[in-house]
Amino acid sequence: MNIDIVATTPFNDQKPGTSGLRKKVAVFQAPTYLENFVQAVFDTIAAPAGSTLVLGGDGRYYNREAIQVILRMAAANGIGRVLVGQGGILSTPAASCVIRKHGTCGGLILSASHNPGGPEGDFGIKYNTGNGGPAPEKVTDAIFARSRELASYRIIDAPDVALDQPGSSVLGGMTVDVIDPVADYAELMESLFDFAAIRKLIAGGFELCFDAMHAVTGPYAREILERRLGAAVGSVINGVPLEDFGGGHPDPNLTYAHELVEIMYGADAPDFGAASDGDGDRNMVLGRGFFVTPSDSLAVIAANAALAPGYADGIAGIARSMPTSAAADRVADKLGVPCYETPTGWKFFGNLMDAGKVTLCGEESFGTGSSHVREKDGLWAVLFWLNILARRRLSVEAILYRHWAEFGRNVYSRHDYEALPADVAAGVMAQVKDQFAVLPGQRFGGYRVKFCDDFS
User: Fold this and answer.
1) Per annotation, catalytic residue among 19, 51, 111, 113
2) Which H, E and C letters describe 391-431, residue by residue?
3) pLDDT score at 343
4) pLDDT category, 115, cuts 50, 70, 90?
């Protein structure tokens, strides 16, 4: 195996955020940009020779090309085996599942989550550690530091690896196993939920609609919802992953999943509707003419967790991000388990899970998950809801009204502003923070401000 050591110069903008490095596609396509970041990752993690790595992404534009570069670099950096999703596809929660099941040294996930795709859209890459979760800040800080001093990267000169059929091949001295991207994940879901009860519910005339938004969860939803659970063919809409997500914005909310919303608020609406995002880690849940907020979804799942076989023994605790409503706190209090408030970023939930302190977690940005993996998991949340509906035999709306009657209702508001100039956004936040000292105690209509809070 001939290894090329290619001279390069550092970039100063490769600091990963809470979900890895995200930039416009054109930035990643610039000479050595992707290679520099990948080499910084390999240098930082210093995986023992012969280690196994997981690799895949959400199928967005530039996904396949980036995978070929990473495979050649992995071979040059002493990785012994790579598990790569067929067609380059692996949802983010499925990648976490594969990392954990196969005990790998971690994985590289290619995604910009719910951001638009296509040649003019976004691309992203992040490293997940051996626990299956996003690398902690000490690792991402070290990757950034390494990227700023990089003088060369390592790569082998070799033909592209065939990705479209499962099987093994050799690249340099490294084994590449192209795996079914759905199998391990579907097996895990079947171990957590009462598939027999859900099948019985659906066989009895229960109708559902799942909008995959032309993103990564299409193959997962078709296999699990239609094939394994018996939902009618066509229950999964927009189920073919496309490089540009069909020209849409793969964010499962009331604005961007408008096709699903129109179906669920239409005259002949099915009983249940749901959507997931670009890389499969977010979710939106709807009943017939009824929207479930992410905060309420977490609370309902927690209150009904024992109905699912994988959680029948109870939960260790609940965690929520700071801006998520306190609905889950009310459930935790009644269950007698702790509820933790964290900054935004799934890595903070992962820390609590690894310590055995929480089982369920969620955030108001349409992310929900549990300790079964170390990422938020859109389809998992959908299956949890189906499990609850199958066992309680109530509508989505009825479940929420009964939940509010038992626990009380927390109301909150989230506003998304996109493509704002950074200085304008910073000015808005500064104006809000400047009022923190005087807002507590003030009254607005019938409401009094109790406290103001910010990330810490």
Assistant:
1) 113
2) HHCCCHHHHHHHHHHHHCCCCCCCCCCCCCCHHHHHHHHHH
3) 87
4) confident
Q: Tell me the per-residue pLDDT of 162-177, one tens digit each, with 9 for 90 and over.
A: 999 999 999 999 999 9
Q: What pLDDT digit, counting tens, does each position of 171-221 carry?
A: 999 999 999 999 999 999 999 999 999 999 999 999 999 999 999 999 999
| pTM for the whole structure | 0.94
Which CATH fold topology does 185-407 show? Alpha-D-Glucose-1,6-Bisphosphate; Chain A, domain 3 (3.40.120)
The reported pLDDT for the residue numbered 328 is 97
Strand order in the sheet with 318-321: 339-342, 318-321, 360-363, 367-370
Q: In whole numbers, what is the pLDDT of the chain averaged over residues?
A: 95
Six token digits for residue 120: 């003019």
Query: Which residues of the chain form CATH 3.40.120.10?
Result: 3-181, 185-407
Rounded Cα gap, residues 372 and 57, in angstroms: 20
pLDDT at 235: 98
How large a percentage of the chain has pLDDT more than 90?
Answer: 90
CATH fold, domain 3-181, is Alpha-D-Glucose-1,6-Bisphosphate; Chain A, domain 3 (3.40.120)
Could you confirm whether 113 is annotated as catalytic? yes
